[in-house]
Design a protein that fits this description.
heterodimer, A: 506 residues, alpha+beta, Cytochrome-c3 Hydrogenase, chain B, four-stranded antiparallel β-sheet, 18% strand, globular, B: 248 residues, alpha/beta, Rossmann fold, three-stranded antiparallel β-sheet, 26% helix
């Protein structure tokens, strides 16, 4: 490990002064050196100040549980890009450019990410006027020219009840040569709104950053607040949080299994799973009244406790859902027409997965054993181990199979936890946030690794709150998976990733 | 094929009997507010009863705007309590303002003209304009076999040209406003507009954020407001069935 890196742990905070400030070249060299050794970029962001931009990069090693942070202070308005040498940095650099107005020299595709004005008015990397609206989706798209090559543009409004995004396909007949994904339509200014926080609204903002991942993002925020204030969460609350996180995974994985079946025209599993997904959402509603887990979490613990009656109720519901889900999903593996559509569609290799820094089920489907619950355990996962399921084909089938295996493990986990609930309280009062610190919180949402980083000023207010949704790492994976595929397989590939638009757009 | 038939028999018929039979809501579900808790909150906290989303006002003995309310588990405005009554939808914005002692307002049926056109076949084009995928998910769920929206003649369609109405979720971000208006224009007249969720009604958790337009009402005329963050599917279905006069 290079000397420019400072070690830290998941769900902890360190004094800002402990992070060595290095010059730009050793900073970038340090990142590239460890990425060459198999590390990857977890979060990379800028904090604009009156002298320029402070760049902070959080890195994770491969499976040895080490996390590290490095920092450089940029006073120029230009900075060297490492995107062509380190693919994982590609989107992060564009994001920093858009938020902080830093121009990345030699970036291969220097386009905006979300189409909004920079944090500091006037500091715009593309010199766009501060008083004019920015037109979303207007950028230079990669184009393929030649005989029989044509371009297909889809979105922002799609055919189903789905969030908006714009997709540009470069096709040769039916074959996709290249897919470029341009998002930003869901941008609500979450990170800008967090500056100066925590505000009374911040918890709800986190719960709705990606609303289908309320617990994943909500818990990451709570962990940040607890790390900054030194609050210890009671064991009972950790168990309740774990149960809610796995219920969220179950609901979404079940929905995806059904939706994948629906996309290949196999309606029995599609219909059954559509309903069973609701059973899992209703279990979350038993816990806290909301099917999405709104209002369950609070810094210091959980708002709601669980009674013995509710526990028995949940165990009964879980047994029924397990029976129904097993029956519905087993149909897939026994239908050759379904397997024929899933296998060898939208494949990614292990090398591509590592290069792109994929997370969550798409990473595990290519054989990358990567799971925050296992690698950087937080909360209840420090006490109990959830086995990591991996596959190696990296195709739609592998991504489907991973979801099913994870669903089984989540059901085992919830059952076990419900049967051995620790006693005691379920919340402690969180005290005020400490000043001049950097806190890091990572959770494993159902889409993969969620990373929140907070940097505080002298009074403990957020100077910067950085959110990385797993979709930020994985959207480029979808674009790569489409190469060489029939364009008609896009919906199926897309569904097998099921990425978040709002979690990306923030 | 035999496996599918066996599974179908095992899974059984799962469409819920609602609206013929009442729905059972979870114990901790937060629906229609307890009117007396509004007065109590106003009295105890006075003007210090501040909701970060502007949903509560202590004036006139306490007033809760269900269009702005997120039905938080711990009410920041000083302890408003909620019942498990999920019937929250309204056809007029001011019907969402709840005051102690005021009479309960439910969504009203559409006019006879509209009833004739869409009463038995109502198709929506959905646009998510900054939605967090929770309202979207609980709208989607209505089309699953449990709720089976199709049995009421209501369906979500792919093209605005095939739609009778626009279904909006999300606070309407700056970046989606144009696409939303284009979709609205593409729907043939007469058309209805549904604002589903706190965001679409008035901005929800993102109210007054510089990146959002505080909901749909400022851009298009809204015919049905469905409160909640996100609304429970029962709240959505209740509103829909009331406007097509299937329940009163």
């Amino acid at each position: 490990m290079s000397g420019s890196l400072h070690t830290l742990y998941n769900s902890s905070s360190i004094p800002l002064a402990d992070i060595p400030v290095v010059d730009s070249i050793p900073f970038l060299q340090g990142i590239m050196d460890v990425v060459d050794q198999g590390w990857r970029i977890v979060s990379y962001f800028g904090i604009p100040d009156n002298k320029g931009v402070v760049l902070i990069c959080v890195l994770a090693d491969k499976g040895e549980g080490r996390l590290a942070v490095t920092r450089t202070d940029v006073t120029d308005d230009r900075f060297p890009s490492i995107a062509s040498l380190c693919t994982q940095a590609h989107l992060f650099e564009r994001e920093i450019a858009e938020q902080c107005g830093l121009v990345f020299d030699d970036h291969p595709r220097f386009n905006p990410v979300r189409f909004h004005h920079p944090f500091v008015p006037g500091r715009d990397a593309w010199n766009r006027p501060a008083d004019e609206p920015i037109r979303v989706g207007v950028m230079e798209y990669f184009q393929v020219a030649g005989d029989n090559v044509h371009e297909v543009a889809v979105g922002p409004v799609h055919a189903g009840i789905i969030e908006p995004g714009h997709f540009r396909f470069q096709c040769h007949g039916e074959e996709v040569f290249h897919l470029e994904i341009s998002l930003g339509y869901q941008h609500r200014g979450i990170e800008a709104a967090c500056i100066g926080g925590p505000h009374p609204r911040t918890l709800q903002t986190m719960e709705t950053a990606a609303g289908d991942t309320t617990i994943g993002h909500g818990q990451a925020y709570c962990m940040i607040m607890e790390a900054l204030s030194g609050t210890k969460v009671p064991p009972r609350a950790e168990v309740l949080r774990g149960i809610a996180l796995e219920l969220e995974r179950l609901a979404n994985h079940t929905g995806d299994l059904g939706a994948i079946a629906g996309d290949v025209g196999y309606l029995p599993t599609a219909s059954f799973c559509g309903r069973i997904r609701g059973d899992f959402l209703n279990m979350t509603a038993v816990l806290c009244g909301s099917r999405f887990g709104r209002g369950l979490l609070t810094p210091g613990g959980t708002v709601f406790d669980i009674t013995n009656d509710l526990r028995d109720n949940l165990l009964k519901r879980l047994a029924e859902a397990r029976r129904d889900l097993t029956d519905a999903v087993e149909l897939l593996w026994n239908s050759p027409s379904v397997m024929g559509r899933l296998e060898d569609t939208g494949s990614l290799t292990l090398l591509q997965g590592l290069d792109l820094g994929l997370v969550g089920p798409p990473a595990r489907a290519c054989g990358i054993k990567r799971d925050v619950r296992n690698d950087y355990p937080f909360g209840i996962y420090r006490m109990t181990n959830v086995p990591v399921a991996t596959s190696f084909h990296g195709d739609v089938c592998a991504r489907t199979m991973i979801r099913w295996q994870e669903a089984l493990k989540s059901m085992d986990f919830i059952e076990e936890q419900l049967r051995q609930m620790p006693g005691g309280g379920h919340r402690r009062q969180a005290s005020a946030c400490a000043g001049h610190r950097l806190a890091l919180a990572m959770t494993e949402g159902w889409r993969g690794e969620i990373c929140h980083v907070a940097v505080t000023d002298a009074t403990g207010r957020f100077v910067r709150y950085k959110i990385v949704d797993p979709s930020f790492h994985n959207w480029p994976g979808l674009a790569m998976a489409l190469r060489g595929q029939q364009i008609s397989d896009f919906p199926l590939c897309n569904k097998s990733f099921n990425l978040s638009y709002c979690g990306f757009d923030l | 094929m035999i496996r599918e038939i066996i599974s179908r028999l095992k899974q059984g018929h799962r469409t819920m009997p609602y609206p013929a039979e009442p729905l059972q809501m979870p114990e901790r579900f937060r629906g229609y507010p307890v009117p007396s808790s509004l007065a109590r909150s106003a009295e105890q906290h006075g003007t210090s009863a501040e909701c970060p989303y502007g949903a509560f006002s202590a004036e006139e003995g306490g007033c809760l705007d269900m269009g702005k309310c997120l039905f938080c588990a711990e009410c920041p405005a000083g302890g408003i309590e909620f019942t498990t009554d999920y019937r929250l939808a309204a056809t007029q914005r001011d019907h969402l303002l709840i005051k102690p002692g005021a009479s309960r307002q439910f969504a009203q049926a559409l006019s006879a003209d509209l009833q004739r056109i869409v009463g038995r076949s109502l198709k929506f084009r959905e646009v998510s304009a900054g939605g967090c995928n929770a309202c979207e998910a609980d709208t989607n769920v209505l089309s699953t076999i449990g709720w089976d929206l199709g049995r009421f003649g209501i369906q979500f369609v792919a093209s605005p040209r095939h739609a009778d109405g626009l279904w909006i979720t999300g606070p309407v971000t700056e970046n989606m406003a144009q696409a939303l208006l284009t979709t609205y224009t593409a729907i043939p007249d007469p058309k209805i507009v549904v604002a589903c969720g706190a965001c679409a009604i008035h901005g929800g958790p993102y109210i007054d954020s510089p990146q959002v337009k505080n909901g749909a009402a400022g851009l298009v005329p809204v015919d049905l407001f469905i409160p909640g963050c996100p609304p429970h599917p029962a709240t959505i279905l209740d509103g829909l069935l009331r406007i097509i006069d299937k329940i009163r």
